[in-house]
Amino acid sequence: MRNLLITGGCGFIGSNFVNYWATRYPTDKIVILDALTYAGNKANIATALTQKNVEFIHGNICDSSLLNDIFLKFNIDTVVHFAAESHVDRSITEPDAFIKTNIIGTHNLLMASKQYWFDNNVKKHHFHHISTDEVYGSLTSSELPFKETNQYQPNSPYAASKASSDHLVRSYFETFGLNTTISNCSNNYGAFHYPEKLIPLTITNILNNKAIPIYGDGKQIRDWLWVEDHCRGIESILNKGTYGEVYNIGGNNEWTNIDIVNLICKKMNFQFSKNQALIDKYSNAISVHNNQSEQLISFVHDRLGHDRRYAIDASKIEKTLNFKPSINFEDGLDKTILWYLNNPDWWTDIV
Q: What is this enzyme's class at the first EC digit (predicted)?
């Protein structure tokens, strides 16, 4: 039995992990800490919160006093750290928030963990830090995917802040002997994905008959990972990972942005062509009614410092922890589209 502190547990990946863990480990105590900034939504964990062993605290990882109180009150022995500012576009216009949350907040959490675990001789403890493939920089089309040993070369304030937090976590293992692990994941997709990101933005813009903006030529390449598979990967690290190690979690699934958007348009056209109820439900989605949602695609000026390609080499976690993605991309995308079609109350107010 564990006593987990899950930071950022109302965000996209964090909430999926909360729901996954609460279902799989009903005897574990789960404490969710979230500041409920724009992308955090308590409704994401509504089902988990019906369990007696799950508790929500509205607060910020930059509040050191609150962190110390949480560790003491709940005897926390495991931290799964999702809390972060994560949108690259926002990091370009508002970098201060990324420095504060991703670097200072992570350091506050490390200090609180170290103080409680060492002062109370909690030998069986684990600090797991969720990071991103963006810390490695950008790849050309011919370069091999990122390994855990790749040099860090962050190209945006977001990526730089995550790289900094990774280094802090590593330092607490090397210097103090804190039991830490880090995972660097590729792009996630699935339920509860905030509609500023490519896949949910494309889906919701089609349903609102709005232009689908594509940066530059749309040929930027990303590796896509089903969010529930990401949760399984974290589970593998928490249960079998080696302290001090870094694990890349990827989907082995590279797509250009424009190809993904075209695929979503095709799948949305198909959904509406076979279901009159969708046409009635989404009466303003004129383009997809006419089987022409791709006409909404609009190429816009590329963003500053836009990385061309990310790709994850996940062979380490596959070989050492026996983890592999369980679902192929098109099936996962079908599930994602159906989730947004069936949950307009979740995203309508957001967009």
A: lyase
Provide the CATH number for the domain around residue 85: 3.40.50.720
Q: Is residue 265 part of a domain?
A: no
On whether the CB atoms of residues 243 and 179 are closer than 8 A, the answer is yes
The catalytic residues are 133-134, 158
Q: Specify the higher pLDDT residue, 91 or 3.
A: 3
Q: Is the pLDDT of residue 87 over 80?
A: no
Structural domain harbouring 26: 3-193+227-253+310-327
pTM of the entire predicted model: 0.96
Please state, in angstroms and rounded to a whole number, the distance separating the CA atoms of residues 345 and 339.
11
**Beta strands across the sheet bearing 78-81:** 54-58, 29-34, 3-7, 78-81, 126-132, 180-185, 246-249
Q: Does residue 125 sit within a domain?
A: yes
Evaluate if residue 292 carries a pLDDT over 80: yes
**Per residue in 302-325, pLDDT tens?**
988 889 999 999 999 999 999 999
Report d(CA 142, CA 160) in Å as an integer: 24
Tally of domains within the chain: 1
For residue 299, being part of any structural domain is answered with no
Task: State pLDDT tens for residues 238-266.
Answer: 999 999 999 999 999 999 999 999 999 99
